[in-house]
Amino acid sequence: LAYFPNDIQPAEGSTGTPIINKSRNIRSAFTHFLSDYSYFFDFMYWRLSSQHAKVFSELKTADLDQYKNQEALSRHEEIISNFLKDAKADDKKVVVLIFPYFAAWGKDYQAQWVDDLMASYFSLNGADVTIDLAPDLKGKTLQQLIANRFDSHPNEYVHALTADKLFEKIVPLLKNTNP
Questions:
Q1: Which of 3, 48, 77, 100 would suit a FRET pair with 87, their CA atoms being 20 to 30 Å apart?
Q2: DSSP label at 30?
């Protein structure tokens, strides 16, 4: 299971939706039209607009605040608990990879408390292995970890590290599994 700290946001009713909608309303009708019908225009708009950084900063705050919202956290934990129970009922091994929240990455990683909270939750609720990737990435700059400055998804370096960590943790699980 790949876990990202923004996974706490529900599919419907995310606290990020109003932020994105508000940013869409700032644009003129013509700009909005071009963004809706031209992938290239939308791509360029978000790379050249100063609005991009502001929106992502607001989304980061909205995502991290969900972990402080007891109702949202309880709902999220219930979903995870049900997933883990279902996997265990089917006699499946569960390996959880916690990816850092790159929107909060820096010398003082602002989301480590979320990673720690969720790693503990996964472990206490039956995950066979929980891997937090943040400690292995410490000392790297954001630019060394993401696809590019406009796409904060993990890059090939992070994917290679993830594969190595998975291999290291999965092999012992496979050796202890009956065919």
A1: 100
A2: H
**Cα 121–chain centre separation:** 16
> Token pair of 48, please?
């050249």
**Rounded to whole angstroms, what are the CA distances from 125 to 35, 50, 128?**
43, 42, 9
CA distance 8 to 6: 5
Distance CA 12, CA 52 (A): 23
Q: Please give the distance of CA 53 from its chain centroid, rounded to a whole number.
A: 18
At 179 the pLDDT is 59
pLDDT in tens, 144-158: 999 987 778 999 999
Residue-level pLDDT, tens digit, the chain, 179 residues: 999 999 999 888 898 888 877 876 777 888 888 988 998 988 788 777 766 677 778 888 999 999 999 999 999 999 999 999 999 999 899 999 999 999 899 999 999 999 999 999 999 999 999 999 999 999 999 999 999 877 789 999 999 999 999 999 999 888 876 65
User: Which residues fall within 8 angstroms of residue 143, CB to CB, at 6 or more apart?
Assistant: 149
- The answer for 139, left when phi > 0, alpha when psi is -120 to 50, beta otherwise, is left
